[in-house]
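REQUEST FORM: STRUCTURE PREDICTION
Request ID: SP-0412
Submitted by: Lab K.M.
Chain count: 1
Length (residues): 662
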Amino acid sequence: MSSSIHAQEQLLERIEIKSSRSLSNNDQQSLSASLLQQSDINLQQAVHISELLSQVAGSWISRGNGQESLISIRSPVLTGAGACGAFVIAEMGVPVRPMGFCNANQLFELNTEQAQYIDVIRGPVSAQYDGNAVHGVINSQPLSVFQSSPLSIDLTMGERRYQRSKFRVGLHNDSSGWLLYGNQSRENGYQPDSGYEQQKANFIYQHLQHDFDSTLLIATTHLNQQSAGYIEGFNAYKKPELVRINANPDAYRHASALRISSQLNWYQNQTTWSITPYLRHSFMRFSQHWVPWQPTEVNQQVSAGMLSKWHQQLETGSITLGLDNEFAQSELSEYQSEPFSASIPQGFHYDYSLNSQLTSVWANYNRPLNNQLEIDFSLRWSQLDYDYDNHLSNGSACTTDTVNCRYFRPADTALTFTNMSPRLALIYRLTGDSNLYIAMSQGYRPPQSSELFRLQQGQQLADLQSETLTNIELGLKKSLNWISWAFTLFDMHKNHYIFQDTERHNYSDGKTRHTGAEIEASVDLSDKLSLGINGSYSRHSYTNNIQISSENIKGNDIDSAPRLLAQVNLKWRPVSQLMTQLSWQHQGAYYLNPQNSQRYPGHNLLHLSTNYSLNEALSWHISVRNLLNTRYAERADFAFNQHRYFTGLPRTIYIGLEWQQQ
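STATUS: Completed
RESULT:
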């Protein structure tokens, strides 16, 4: 083995496994975790992140218009002002946004189109990832300097004037190197006035010494999108005369983000020190087209922080101690340009700034009890401080003679949320290639700023507590040369669920339960044929009667929560130059409202992806989404006494050509 290759392997092992929160060795951990390799990403050539994460058990990324999305990981599709706080979205282990200031569509801030890999954790892991890691984590790992060709160009075209170009350029030697890569895409959209333009770029520098390594990452994204809203009417997604309607032709979303982080690791004997300082900025302006008066929201944040840890390998086991700090300055305003009614007035509804500080201390202890049994324990203490400043008049946004004003601005205040998050796991190694584990954990998320300070209908104070999710799960994993699989049973109970009641007041006394089973398997049927399976059967239900309906909903399914999700991928490689994958995707039925009186029947889709290498430098790829041209809804909803749908796209073909310097 050459010294260059050896150095590269050292760097990958040290940076990706020991010194970050990556799960590239997840088969040895007591976590429900999935890994999408670079080969999966390149074969899929996804236009939207939902196309990639459908390959992960228990996950549904509900595609909105353009690049918009809502997330479901071992959960319903969570909506509402702060629902996005139930997930951590990270790049190289660093969350893309500060705690308390998430956005439901923040997945498009990741360059997943060109990731080295994407790992997904299901269930609460706040002990490892801090608050917001309640239902799951999505982490995108940037490309490695040492595993990428020095120069490449990829051009893709598709229907509705879809165009995408990707590039990569870099240089490295045995111990250091740099890589610049990015992509730009545009599409006219399926509905009128629903196109988008998007640009993403990453710069990475890596350096390796005997007792030190470092990774510098600069990431930026920009989105300019015209947004189409729901189509309305029962089964509207099945009706050709309705599927292309855009009732909100003036809706839009403009967003940009910039992140800089540097992972630094020092090694001495059995000790590792690691620090990751980071800076982040994001900006977003969009029209709230889902409500009739369509106000405009503008939000932005600037934040800085540091993740630091000390790891000691013991004679038996290991111990890790960590300290995380974060500071953020955020701003948000909501403005309505046209008059609508006395209780929904023209002008500014909200305009406030928010300073926040997060401090977390955590520890992990791992110890083998004997040759087969291992214990793993983690504990995190975290405190989040908010300092809120209202820039408008306190109280009602309406005139003094208006009764029941929609918008209410609380006075300046400071709030603190303190939480503890434990995790305990026992791992029993049945054989060298299989293990059984049982894990108990609790995740939490502090209330998001929008839940605390964007009050409505005269609510003067949102006295909210942090949501907590307590989980117990049992898992079995096995890996052989020709087959690998993981099976998990879970039972999760959520307390202090934050919701908006029928009077549009925010409360945190909701309780829900989430139970189910997940499976992921990969089987080599022959040297040319392989089968990949992922699926989940789960139930997400209300366990108390929260006031979001005039009916008693205790025991009902939570809306937008299919019980059955599955995907089967059949890969065929008749020769080394050709790879083809046929995918069957199933989404089960789900209810559209808390009363469980309205229902979407679910759907089945077929997709095809092919990659063919013409020579060592040149290859082409083709993907066909919705091969059978099925009429379906990306998401169904029932609101304002009306069925609403995001239209599923018809059969769509994308063709691309890639050149790589050898």
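NOTES: The longest helix spans residues 3-18.
Reviewed by: T.R.
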